[in-house]
Amino acid sequence: MIAYIEPYFLDNDADAGKHTDGVSDSLNLQGEILCGDDAADIAGKDFGGMNSVKPLAVVRPVGSEDIARVVKAALSSDKLTVAARGNGHSINGQAMTEGGLVVDMRSTAENHFEVGFLSGGGGGRGTAFVDVSGGALWENVLKRCVSEYGLAPRSWTDYLGLTVGGTLSNAGVSGQAFRYGPQTENVTELDVVTGKGDVVTCSEMENSELFFSVLGGLGQFGIITRARVLLQPAPDMVRWIRVVYAEFDEFTRDAEWLVSQKDESSFDYVEGFVFVNGDDPVNGWPTVPLHPDHDFDPARLPQSSGSVLYCLELALHYRNSDSNSTVDKRVERLIGRLRYEEGFRFEVDLPYVDFLLRVKRSEEIAKVTGTWETPHPWLNLFVSKRDIGDFDRTVFKELVKNGVGGPMLIYPLLRSRWDDRSSVVLPEGEIFYIVALLRFVPTCAKASSVEKMVAQNQEIVHWCVKNGIDFKLYLPHYKSREEWIRHFGNQWSRFVDRKAMFDPMAILSPGQKIFSRAL
Ligand code: FAD
């Protein structure tokens, strides 16, 4: 069928946007198709802003059946690929396809929203869940769950303008992951359209190989159309705290102690970041206080402070009915054990939803200054506890000691919270750190400065490889097969087997550049 469609798209490239109804009819889709410039406008770029491609068409499906038809149409062609696009917040073209079909998952955002309870055993009501679309934005999932049910997902990303399917294809990590695992550990069932065009429901018990393949699977095995996300009662309020360290060892010791406490006896959120020991408004001291009234007084820093400082970021959930003194007591019991620099504790109380939407404020500011639209040469890694000290000495204290024009996150995670049946690969050892260099580029910057940032990212990765650092890229981006094989290590053959099982023609997510479309 697509043999007839493909030339049709191509012949009409000049008449972008026209005649697409006929194509839609021949594919028998309920949704719409956009071609030419209309398609490139939607799916030709991503948040990274460093790649640009021309898709053949963008399909706006109505649901799984439409998506299955698109996959089957690509299968019956001799070269077409299919890229699911969530909110296009990848950095390196992962949701793109040159000359292929993009499935814009946002058109399915409203397809599911149903709260239920897992059977609790013993007849009681079990854990609450919500069924949501793979194309839903986490921000909307949060708002609806809280306002309609007083419930909320347990594990988040820092920024919520991302789709459910997009983060589940990677992991989905934030300050709750030390307790609940990444978002991939907080779903119990998925509907997936495989690379064979089959529509399959999967879970740990049913079609489990597909379930675990898709979680963290970089879009390689299927397109997630529905996810069953575990919920917890939503707290009303959050106490959000930042404390500052001059010494990396003390920062890591406290962070590791906090994430190793038993459930419920630690903070509800533990993150951290590195900042420049100077008054730079984007990279330095001013990035730490949480409120305009807070004063960061550098005179109180120890003489021995180095080029960078470390900030532990914590949050404690509570209810409106909890008295101030109860909350204070819970905070003091934990924070009293920490060895941050005296005089460098900042805190505010804010509604839970506002806390989870805290990065939206940064998005609004970046949109005003223009840095939301400029390129984002970001680097995300997982580094084992064994090597994080070396990493700090070389990368933070030397290579990026002047900052990256945005946050430099670092916080510990526990491997035991990650199911090794999923497709995600991690460093060895129970404790590892997520490191994120979230570079923003001023609008006045020259193209060469973006190239320098990309080169510095490569330098960091090369340094890690050369020095035998136990690390994995998160949101990985490699161009050669050798690099992918090294990335997956002893999980490579499993990944390849899964590809053969669920997407044997390598139709899906070509932008990851792991497999080539089979002829
Ligand atoms: P896209 O970029 O559209 O797609 C990503 C990949 O998933 C592509 O390969 C695509 O083909 C595939 N895909 C998309 N939808 C589906 C689907 N339904 N089924 C199967 N495959 C699919 N990550 C974190 O873990 N924690 C954070 O705190 C965090 N913060 C971020 C903040 C910002 C401002 C940005 C830009 C990114 C952040 N990320 C974070 C990274 C983010 O999780 C990933 O980039 C994610 O892939 C983006 O989701 P998306 O919906 O835009 O996916």
From TrEMBL:
It catalyses: N(6)-dimethylallyladenine + A + H2O = 3-methyl-2-butenal + adenine + AH2. GO terms for molecular function: cytokinin dehydrogenase activity; FAD binding. It is an enzyme of class 1 (oxidoreductase). It comes from the Eukaryota. Gene3D superfamilies: 3.30.465.10, FAD-linked oxidases, C-terminal domain, Uridine Diphospho-n-acetylenolpyruvylglucosamine Reductase, domain 2. It holds the Pfam family Cytokin-bind. Its EC number is 1.5.99.12. GO terms for biological process: cytokinin metabolic process. Keywords: FAD, Flavoprotein, Oxidoreductase. Signal peptide: none annotated. Residues 51-234 form the FAD-binding PCMH-type domain. Its cofactor is FAD. Belongs to the oxygen-dependent FAD-linked oxidoreductase family. This is cytokinin dehydrogenase. It comes from Microthlaspi erraticum.
